[in-house]
Amino acid sequence: MAATLDPIQSINTQGFLFRKALEGWPKPIVLAGLWLIFFPTLLVSLYAATRLILNRTGFADFFFFWVFVGLAYVAFVILYRVT
């Protein structure tokens, strides 16, 4: 599937590539690429969520805590499925 200038088609193409990467046994280059993309995301999200829970000051911290927990969850699930 080729990307086009249409933003919706571009999003569909990117989603297709990630779904294709998660099917079956991945090639080593795909595995390395996904780990390079999502492992730092997992680490940074967990670190940020931990910092926010330790330094609670208001509603914004509560909101961003759950945003970072969600990002960490997505990164973990993708890494788990591809590995």
Outline:
With 83 residues, the chain is an all-alpha fold. The protein has 3 helices and no strands.
Estimated structural class: mainly alpha
Cα distance spanning the termini: 24 Å
Poorly predicted regions are: none
Please compute the radius of gyration using only Cα atoms.
16 Å
What can be said about the biggest beta sheet?
A: none
* Secondary-structure element string: HHH
Helical content stands at over 70%
Mean of residue pLDDT values: 83
Q: Characterize the overall form.
A: flat
Care to count the β-strands? 0
Description of the structure:
The chain has 83 residues and is mainly alpha-helical. The protein has a domain at 26-82. It is 80% helix and 0% strand. It contains three helices and no strands. The protein has helices spanning 7-21, 28-54, 59-82. Helix 2 runs antiparallel to helix 3 (59-82). The radius of gyration is 16 Å and the shape is flat.
SSE arrangement:
Elements: H1 7-21, H2 28-54, H3 59-82
Helix pairs in contact: 2-3
Features:
83 residues, mainly alpha, flat
